[in-house]
Amino acid sequence: MKKHLFSQDPEIYAAIECEVKRQNFGLELIASENFVSKSVLQAQGSVLTNKYAEGLPGRRYYGGCEFVDDVEDLARDRAKQLFQCDWVNVQPHSGASANAAVYLSCLKPGETFLGLDLAHGGHLTHGSPVNFSGIWFRATYYGVEKDGRIDMNRVREKAKATAPKLISIGASAYSRDFDYEAFRSIADEVNALLWMDMAHPAGLIAAKVLNDPLPHAHIVTTTTHKTLRGPRGGMLLIGKDFQNPFGKTAPKSGRVRNMSELLDSAVFPGMQGGPLMHVIAAKAVAFKEALQPEFVDYAKQVRANAMVMAQSFMSRGYDVVSGGTDNHLVLLDLRSKNITGRDAERALQAAEITVNKNMVPFDDQNPFVTSGIRLGTAAVTTRGLREAEIEDVVLLIDRILSEPNNESVRSNVKSKIRTLCETHPLYDFVIT
Ligand code: DSN
Fold first, then answer.
1. 407-422 vs 10-25: helix axis angle to the nearest 10?
2. What is the C-alpha separation between 301 and 197, in angstroms, rounded?
3. Is 232 a catalytic residue?
4. Are 218 and 84 in contact (CB under 8 A)?
5. pLDDT score, position 312
6. Ligand 1 nearest-atom number relative to CA 172
7. Ligand 1 centroid to 32 CA: how many Å?
């Protein structure tokens, strides 16, 4: 029991140590990643992992839940305060699980919903044909226009033509803010429920740096690990609770259940078994951090850094999809630079800069090759980079992409990235 991981399982310890080094000394520009605090890591690494707690606080199927009840109550209260909403469920293991609970509550197999096309920046769980959401339901899509932006008139036309029961907003590669009011008016026109998956911008929404979907969307889902800077996980939220429109009733009383009750039971027992109480504790810690005034400063800096990044790329002749960004994300269309997303990702990785290849709207390459790369500023902002350093980073990326096979350029850039990371230290431990 007393043994340290280092001596008990040296292989796993070594892999963790290598990953700590990779995170410490490489530049993390994957838009969906971030670096959590030591407190978040400690909560997630705690003995709470041992506890089964199916059910909700005060209504569990197991004994011994008094302390994990406190943890989950704190997580829920803090999330409600952070997003100023009536109801949350902090149990989804991931954003995909949270989204699955929405489908389970709102649609029957074969029913129609409308979401942003994956090829135009949408998410796998918003109706991709290879995901359960596209396999079990009739997925229809809206897209972006040639300018890289969503046109609400086109969304309205699509909604009228397809008569969806559910409309989703949210994306994994869309750098513009959403007009939630316009989406809601379309949803009301076609009698659909409106669902926002705010996984990417959740931290910026919490900090009020972006428009708030909660007053407009019937249901909101998120991950907790991207701009929100918590542990990997998911969450469901409702701004103002309401009676479910499907007339689903409570078994004994016959009372029409609220939407929150449908979603609670869709998570458990509908989708999941025992919640991960150690992750819920880590979520609670992250929510407390996000409630501090410093988090607002952080979110503003994430956005300012992304804007400078987009501008710097454009001034170097790069094609930034939509001509800029409103959030933490920059999508580069590399077709005019004669390099594919795959080759760009590989060349940058060799210089310790981590990005992901990404489809761009109207792409002519397949998803394994792609014409673009997606970059984000959430992680580098956590480690303290500001506008001036972001401009330096863009210069270094440009040097690599201009000469992807030049070894001397690569080693020069790599050493500059190492210096930049050393002057913005991250983790000073291997395990907490
Ligand atoms: N795969 C995540 C992303 O990178 O955006 C979304 O789930």
1. 100
2. 23
3. yes
4. no
5. 98
6. 5
7. 6
As a whole number of angstroms, the distance between CA 71 and CA 302 comes to: 29
> Could you tell me which of 198, 199, 203, 196 has the C-alpha nearest to residue 218?
196
Report the C-alpha gap between 81 and 288 in whole angstroms.
Answer: 10
Characterize the bridge pairing of strands 219-223 and 193-197: parallel
Ligand 1 and 172: CB distance under 6 A: yes
Element (H, E) at 353: strand 353-354
Outline where DSSP puts E strands in 11-126. 27-28, 55-56, 59-60, 87-89, 112-116
Give which of 234, 192, 195 is closest to 217, Cα–Cα.
Answer: 195
**pTM score, whole prediction:** 0.97
Are 194 and 159 in contact by the 8 Å Cβ rule? The answer is no
Adjacent-strand bridge partners of 167: 114, 194
Percent of the chain with pLDDT over 90: 99
Whole-angstrom distance, CA of residue 389 vs CA of residue 421: 11
Q: Report the distance separating Cα 406 and Cα 350, nearest Å.
A: 11
- The dihedral of CA 204, 209, 213, 215: what is its sign? positive
Using DSSP bridges, classify how beta strands 372-376 and 219-223 pair: parallel, antiparallel or unpaired: unpaired
CA dist 317 and 82 (Å) reads 40
Indicate if 283 belongs to the active site: no
Residue 223 among the catalytic residues: yes
Of 133, 222, 226, the residue with max ligand 1 atoms within 8 A of its CB, to mutate for a pocket test, comes to 226
Q: What percent of the chain has pLDDT over 70?
A: 100
The one catalytic residue in 226, 410, 414, 416 is 226
Q: Residue 127 CA to chain centroid, in angstroms?
A: 17
What per-residue confidence (pLDDT) applies to 1?
Answer: 67
Task: Please identify, by atom number, the ligand 1 atom nearest to the C-alpha of residue 124.
Answer: 7
Place of tokens 């990643």: 33
Q: Which of 218, 229, 204 is nearest to 83 (CA)?
A: 204
**Atom 5 in ligand 1: residue holding the nearest Cα:** 172
pLDDT (tens digit, 9 = 90+) per residue, 206-243? 999 999 999 999 999 999 999 999 999 999 999 999 99
Distance 25 CA to ligand 1 centre (A): 23
E strands present in 146-293: 166-169, 193-197, 219-223, 234-238
